[in-house]
Specification:
Elements: H1 2-18, E1 34-41, H2 45-53, E2 61-68, E3 71-81, E4 85-96, E5 100-108, E6 113-122, E7 128-137, H3 145-179
Antiparallel strand pairs: 1-7, 2-3, 3-4, 4-5, 5-6, 6-7
Helix pairs in contact: 2-3
Length: about 180
């Protein structure tokens, strides 16, 4: 028990000291916090959309179960989660092409709740802003569990945004090169 407490305390202190609070946007703190991060991508909304939806091994393990009528059902395994280690979730995604993808967890082996949105906004200069909002309730009841869950959520948001930016910009560059 002492090792677990020490690990949780070390994780908490590290995240408190290294997380810039300007990126945290809490919504309804009684239930869960919605974490949000955004990035400007040098690519079109279509390239960003394709990058979000593309299968990529750098995302946690993801398998599309069904697609139709602007909705998708996806099974995703989230690894490297504090205390619970990993979780398998079935997620319903509602798509508005090239604008947004809203998602909500339908079931999970460990998590209590997961929901959020990818929001794609074209800019006048041809670039695109992509924002990822996500909230997570791990169902873990211990001191600082909410803070730990928020930190993990924000970290995963930033990792996914960086990957989407890289994929979209690489894809856009390849298309532009073919046109030259």
């Amino acid at each position: 028990m002492s090792k677990l407490f020490d690990a949780v305390r070390a994780t908490f202190l590290f995240t408190i000291l290294t997380t810039p609070m300007s990126h945290v946007i809490p919504v309804n703190a009684e239930q869960s916090s919605r974490m949000s991060a955004a990035v400007v991508v040098n690519a079109s909304p279509k390239s960003v959309w394709d990058a979000i939806r593309s299968p990529n091994p750098a995302f946690d393990h993801r398998k599309v179960l069904s697609v139709g009528n602007g909705e998708a059902l996806v099974e995703e395994t989230f690894d490297d989660l504090p205390i619970i280690h990993s979780s398998i979730c079935v997620i319903k995604e509602i798509e508005t092409p090239y604008r947004r993808i809203d998602y909500v967890m339908v079931k999970s082996d460990k998590l209590k709740a997961l929901a959020g949105s990818w929001i794609i906004t074209p800019l006048k200069d041809g670039r695109t802003t992509v924002e990822l909002q996500s909230s997570l309730d791990s169902g873990v009841h211990m001191p600082f569990a909410r803070k730990i869950a928020d930190d993990v959520t924000l970290k995963k948001c930033k990792q996914r945004l960086a990957l989407v930016k890289e994929i979209a910009e690489t894809s856009e560059h390849r298309v532009a090169s073919k046109l030259d």
